[in-house]
TrEMBL record:
Keyword Cell membrane tagged: no
Segments forming domain hAT-like transposase RNase-H fold: 365-468
Pfam families cross-referenced by the UniProt entry: Dimer_Tnp_hAT, hAT-like_RNase-H
Gene Ontology molecular function: DNA binding; protein dimerization activity
Organism taxonomic ancestry: Eukaryota, Viridiplantae, Streptophyta, Embryophyta, Tracheophyta
Protein name, as recorded: Zinc finger BED domain-containing protein RICESLEEPER 2-like
UniProt keyword terms in alphabetical order: DNA-binding
InterPro entries: hAT-like_transposase_RNase-H, HATC_C_dom, RNaseH-like_sf, ZnF_BED_domain_contain
Domain HAT C-terminal dimerisation: 522-604
Amino acid sequence: MNSCKKHHHAVETTRLQISLKQGAKVGDGCLISWKFDQDACRKALARMIVIDELPFKFVEGEGFRSFMAMVCPRFIIPSRWTVARDCVDLYTSEKKNLKSLLNKSSQRVCLTTDTWTSIQNINYMCLTAHFIDKNWKLQKRIINFCPITSHKGEAISLAIENCLRDWGIDRIFTITVDNASSNDVAINNFRRKMANWDSTILKRDHIHMRCVAHIINLIVVDGLKDISESVTRVRDAVKYVKQSPARLNKFKECAKLEKIESKSSLCLDVSTRWNSTFLMLNVAQKFERAFERFDEEDPYFKLDLQCKKWEVIVNDDGSVIFGSDGKPQKEMKTCDGRPTSTDWNNARLFASLLQVFYEITLKVSGSLYITANTFAHDISSIHTILKEWQESEDIDVYSMGARMKKKFDKYWGDPDKMNKLFYIAVVLDPRHKLDFVEFMLVELYGVENGARVGKMVKDTLVALYKNYKEKMEPSSSNMLSIQEPSEIEPKTLSQTDLKRQSILEKYKRQKAQSFGDGSMSELDKYLNEMVEEYHDSFDILGWWKQNCHRFPILAQIARDVLAIPISTVASESAFSTGGRVLDCFRSSLTPMVVESLICTQDWLRSSPIPINVEETLEDLEKLERGNFVFKKFIVIFFLSS
């Protein structure tokens, strides 16, 4: 083949190249043909920009152009404007595919909504759809990320309605929101607009779901309002050590001399995230001996932690001295701010108390696994813990428990105000069923209230079953009325058959009294079967997938109920009392492009990659010990990124 002298690396565009299929071994016979395709490369580039959250100007960077000149010199690198259009086209294509999937499926969709704010103070509403597909896999898709005029309920309701109309979605099961009063207005408005939708369930009475993670956050924040002075002293000590690399290195030497083997690193807490206070205390209390040795070796530690505070002036007999204005006189005094052994004991205590809420919040904030069937257990656990704290002799524990219990009762103290679908999700867990829910309600609310709420849950379950049965078998009642006269002829039945028929009718009447309908044999069969053995690795969706042929109506209910998310936020945002903010790159884009990038990224990513900060820090420390030059490079890289 004659090649161009100037571009000697060029090949004919029509020639096919043979390449090994990714992951295949030589000799497997997995050879595939490959041909350069400019359009396919541009689509792949757009996917990379979206998935990795790269700015559009990335394609015009010198490094990327040099890389592509070496890897694929025939690829014509598009401009940033062309890449932006390709990303929007990718969004349009993926949206069409997802819309087709949602419209063809028979299951209902559960929604969650949350708000974001850009650095230009533009308010965005994020709407996410949750559903269980035909393969019994939980799916989560962001279907809208649009600006809203205000945070008022009317604006939120209108934005949700417009989004669902655009997608052609009318089979809404629940909407999970946080506890802002505007969301109550939004759900009520949206419930009225759903009145004419044929796909509604139970007259839309159970559509409103409150975010569990948000309520837990409010409970803990109330408990930490009057946080102990010990936490402040530990925080100041950690802050002093982390203020300079020299102090941190000296502290590490102290920890090494005290033979403290811990992979954790000291961390400061953030005022809007109570989980950071837990993490700070949980790590710092492991280094108590290191702090004591550091105090002996660093003379400035004591001086820097000295604090000044106003104290009431008292006489020798302990009586308070009042001024001419009638108020107690105060004077400024210098006190030692170093943590004492009592402070460290308190730090361990607070860390152990907060760990319970930390673990529960992480669990309920998951979006890649079922959480609806665990809510009632978490409520019961929190109630038991707060009751124990209120009986504690420790004044700090008692006061914290009292404040938390007050907030707990505001949201979960009245079972009549709670959505009964939370309990039905536990009933649809074959490890528990209805008997366990009734027992748990008695333990939580007492015998009288527990039995009353248990009956309400049972009635809701029966009504839900009848509603689904009518929608799945709309003509079943008519068929029975037509077939019964021809199937049951008194002249053709013997006396034994008539007796058996009489007993059967009596049994149906008995079931009708307990379940409201004698034809509910499927629900009756499920509730009366033995429960499955309890273990944490139990796959509830796998169980329903295997048994859906036995319980077709209940299986459809389970697909909808178990898809309910009990939290509106991802785990990394569950502890924040502040707002959720867009990054600088996305904040600089138009709302349409922002929605295209965020939605498409969510659709393309198969699963998020969690970042373990402690493991990352441990790897960096190994590199620090191995190569000082590489250490400087890593530090500069992270500071500049």
